[in-house]
Structure to design on (332 residues):
């Protein structure tokens, strides 16, 4: 396996105390969709992992029967990350739980600085029933605002505890602080797997055969848990997939990523690109929330492919097809 392929995607889970980070992590660990996750947490006890899932417990590390591993961060996050990266285990992704009062963006910088990691996204949870009241406390204002500004996806949890007018006020409040970040409203910290991880994205909408150009799938069920959510608040999402033909100008793609059309939650794939010197190669394109990157990649076994996801009714399928599509799109 090449060095390019071994860069592990890093997801940071942030949010204030009581927002639901531990509940979200528990859900993710119980049903990781076949992913082998290395999850770094502050407190094993708070996770309350089902004993039936535990295959081994060494004190610092809990190995689960589904291939995932939980590591206690302790006093040194960098050391915990090094243990994961140097482990003989082959993980698909790394997830870090930020403490309830920390700035998740500072943690996310590890994904940019370490050559063994690539930042997949920052997910910040908000307690719908308490967040705005907490924010009004002068001692907490800066912490909550930093957390929101770090987010590639804001998960507004516990929406069942507030009325619709408070939900609307929360949306306005989040937009005023964080700007045009995707917002997903839920209860019980239930979030479709493909929204949490770019690693899971190809599983949400299997790539079509090479002869097919583009597809736009309305109302795709993200995950079994999504069926339990209120359908008015994103239980379904839209996906789009494409096998782009030809080579794309790398500089133009980077410019496009800086001005990505609204409504796009995640975009991931591999395609051929042309550099300024005219050289042609393969690149991995990745976008999460509001941060995108284009990096050199190995030639994929199955050829070029892109997969995108957006909240239902908001996915900019036409803009995606205009940029990447070659041929007719089809609704399924």
């Amino acid at each position: 396996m090449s060095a390019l392929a071994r860069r592990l995607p890093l997801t940071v889970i942030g949010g204030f105390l009581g927002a639901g980070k531990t509940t979200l992590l528990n859900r993710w660990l119980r049903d990781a969709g076949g992913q082998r996750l290395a999850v770094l947490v502050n407190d094993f006890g708070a996770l309350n992992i089902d004993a039936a899932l535990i295959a081994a417990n060494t004190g610092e590390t809990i190995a689960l029967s589904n291939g995932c591993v939980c590591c206690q961060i302790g006093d040194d996050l960098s050391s915990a990350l090094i243990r994961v990266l140097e482990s003989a285990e082959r993980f698909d992704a790394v997830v870090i739980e930020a403490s309830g009062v920390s700035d998740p963006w500072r943690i996310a910088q590890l994904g940019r600085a370490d050559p063994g990691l690539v930042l997949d996204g920052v997910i910040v949870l908000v307690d719908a029933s308490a967040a705005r009241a907490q924010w009004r406390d002068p001692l907490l204002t800066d912490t909550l605002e930093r957390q929101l500004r770090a987010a590639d996806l804001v998960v507004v949890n516990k929406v069942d505890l507030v009325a619709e007018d408070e939900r609307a006020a929360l949306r306005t409040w989040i937009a005023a602080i964080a700007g045009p970040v995707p917002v997903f409203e839920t209860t019980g910290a239930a979030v479709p797997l493909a929204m949490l991880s770019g690693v899971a994205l190809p599983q949400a909408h299997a790539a079509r055969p090479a002869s097919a150009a583009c597809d736009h799938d309305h109302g795709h069920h993200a995950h079994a848990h999504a069926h339990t959510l209120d359908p008015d608040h994103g239980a379904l999402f839209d996906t789009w997939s494409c096998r782009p033909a030809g080579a794309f100008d790398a500089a133009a793609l980077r410019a496009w990523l800086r001005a990505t059309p609204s409504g796009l939650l995640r975009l991931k794939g591999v395609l051929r690109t042309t550099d300024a010197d005219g050289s042609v190669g393969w690149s991995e394109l990745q976008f999460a929330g509001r941060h995108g990157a284009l990096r050199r990649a190995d030639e994929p076994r199955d050829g070029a492919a892109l997969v995108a996801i957006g909240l239902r009714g908001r996915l900019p399928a036409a803009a995606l097809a205009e940029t990447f599509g070659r041929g007719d799109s089809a609704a399924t």
